[in-house]
Structure formats: structure tokens, C-alpha cells
Amino acid sequence: MSDTLNPKILILGGSGFIGRSLCEQLARQLGGRARITVPSRRSRHAQAIQGLPGLTVLQANVHEDAQLQALVQGHDVVINLIAILQGSEHQFEQAHVQLPTRLAQACKASGVRRLIHVSALGVQDNAPSRYLRSKTRGEAALQAAGLELTLLRPSVVFGANDRFVNLFAKLQALFPVMPLAGAAVRFQPVWVEDVARAIVACVVERSSIGQVYELAGPQVLSLAEIVRLAGQHSGHARPVLPLPGPLAWAQAVMMEMLPGEPLMSRDNLASMRVPNIASGRLPGLQDLGIQPQSLSAVLPSYLGAAQGCARLDQWRRKAGR
């Protein structure tokens, strides 16, 4: 890094779920000394972070080579958070393979050496899902580029605005029973704030260069246990009905046919054939000086708060306020 005291940092995906927490952590831990650039196709998507000290939002399309090259120029560190969970083979290829490849090329052309890339647990060449296979190829492209690379592989990430635990809490508020595909699949949920702290540590500590970190929380839970915790802390606990393989597959097919992004896809089910837990063979959060928080410890702070706000709104409507 050319300036460790006042680094210039480019964050691709900085307006997303992990990105928002990362931008806040960088502003807090570096005291506004960092100069952070967050490109976004639509600036309104970045409204939550626009007021942070030292942060600039630029309207740009990172999938355009000329724009990506211009964005990378002059930065000390580039962080890539861009990922998708649903999509076609082409969409996974574009987001997880082509973009990292083009990003590495842009960094080399601009003389930017430092790159931090967020991948996923479970990457392997013969992974059962398009998601994991594309993530694997993206990692390989970056490792072949000869940059000062750090790879981070998180388990499923939870937090106040996630689309995982919050989704199951909302579904249990609507339905009397939770039919659940992959109920026995094991996860090691990691708090979004811990993921953000890990990325900041990698920005600051040059010892993280060349490392691959598995980011996982302290609890190993089945999907059914996670769903039950979401119901319990949101005040809408419902019985969980595990679905056998054929019914789970049929449910995913039906969900894919609904408008908008599906809650569950066949590729998601395929990903869940790989346990989403740390191997223990690679460094983790503790090696970055972070004591991870468990889902059980963090969940009441945001699901309970959401439940309280909902009850207050309901009381106000009844009172005509």
C-alpha cells in the first residue's frame, strides 16, 4: 500500500449488505483518514453510506472495461464484494469469473497491487452448484494474476438487513408452518460486522497478503435450528416441516417460476449439498484478532427490535396516531 495512514480504497459492491457495514467500519476505525470510492449504477442505492466521512459515491458500471479501468486508477487497495446468489450460468460467469478476471487486469494495468476478494465457503472445482463452481473459477483467475491478493471465504452472513434470517422471520409471521428444504444442512453463520472487521484488518495488516481466510461464527447450526431461532426471536415461532429431496426440488422449481428473485432455487439446493462450515485447515477470524459473535447472541438485538417497532406501529394505528 502506498499510503498506510491515508489509504485510497475502491470498494466494488460497497452499497450492498456487507459493503454498507464495511464502509461504516472503515470510517470508524480509520477515523475518516481513508479515501473511499464506491461505484454504483444507481446512486440512490448508496444513500445509506453517502454521508460517511471520506467516502465518495460515483455512478459507474463496473462491467464496462473503460469505466472499471478509470475507477481502479490511483487507488491503494481494491476490495471486491460483488456476488449474486441466483442466476443463469452466464450471469454467474459474468459476476464471479469475468468481473474478477477483468478487475485483476485493470489492477495490473494501473499499477495497483493490493486486492481483497470476498468469495465463499465450499469452493471447489467439482462443487455441485453453478454458484460455487463460478466462485472457484473466480478465485483461480485472481490467484493467477500475481497480485497482492487476500481471499476471504465467509459462511452465510447474517445481520440486521440480511436476506436470510430476516426472510425466515417474515415467512413465519405469514404462515402457520414452515416447510423447509435442506433442513439438516449445517451452517456456521457469521455476523456481517465481523466480516467487515475482517476486511478492515486485511486492509491494515500486510501480513494478510497471500492468505485465504475462512470467516465463520462460533456456532454450527442446521438450517432448521436457524429457522427456529428466527421464529423464536421474532415472536412468530412455527413448526418446521423438513421436506424430503423430491419435494424440496419441486418446491424450488415452483419458486423459480414466481416473479422476481426466487426465495429458493435448484442451484441453492445444490449448494446446500456442501456443508457451509469452516474446514479448520485455514486461518479464520481469530487470526485477524476478531472474536466472532454467535447468531444466538446477536439475533435478539435486531429481530427483537424489529418486533418491538412492529408492535408500536400496530398500537399507533389502533390509536389513530
What would you say this structure looks like, in words?
The protein is 42% helix and 16% strand. With 321 residues, it is an alpha/beta fold. It has a domain at 8-158 and 190-217 and 277-292: NAD(P)-binding Rossmann-like Domain (Rossmann fold, 3-Layer(aba) Sandwich). Helix 5 (165-174) crosses helix 7 (223-234) and helix 7 packs parallel to helix 10. It is globular and about 55 Å long. The relative contact order is 0.12.
Features:
Rossmann fold, two-stranded parallel ribbon, 321 residues, 42% helix, 10 helices, 13 strands, alpha/beta, seven-stranded parallel beta sheet
Give start-end ranges of low-pLDDT stretches.
308-321
**Sheet/helix structural class:** alpha/beta
Shape: globular
How are the strands ordered across the major sheet? 3-2-1-4-5-6-11
User: In DSSP terms, counting alpha (H) and pi (I) runs of 4 or more, how many helices?
Assistant: 10
Mean pLDDT over the full residue set:
90
